[in-house]
Write a structure and sequence with these properties.
This protein has 62 residues and is an all-alpha fold. It has a domain at 1-29. Helix content is 61%, strand content 0%. The chain is rod-shaped.
């Protein structure tokens, strides 16, 4: 009886490991959180607007 229990436990362990490996292979590894949470929170895109000179308007006035 003890041998049957050991074999059943070993079989269940192998089955759970196989299911876990299959799930990771299909869906990919779970993402981990970055250590620096400020990068995640402050992900606003910063751009600088450049005003173009209106050379045509200035030449016409002269």
């Amino acid at each position: 009886m003890n041998k049957l229990k050991k074999m059943l436990r070993l079989f269940c362990l192998a089955l759970f490991l196989l299911l876990a490996v299959t799930g990771i292979a299909i869906t990919g590894a779970a993402p981990t959180l970055a250590k620096n949470r400020e990068r995640i929170i402050d992900n606003e895109t910063l751009i600088e607007m450049v005003d173009e000179k209106k050379e045509d308007d200035e030449e016409e006035k002269m």
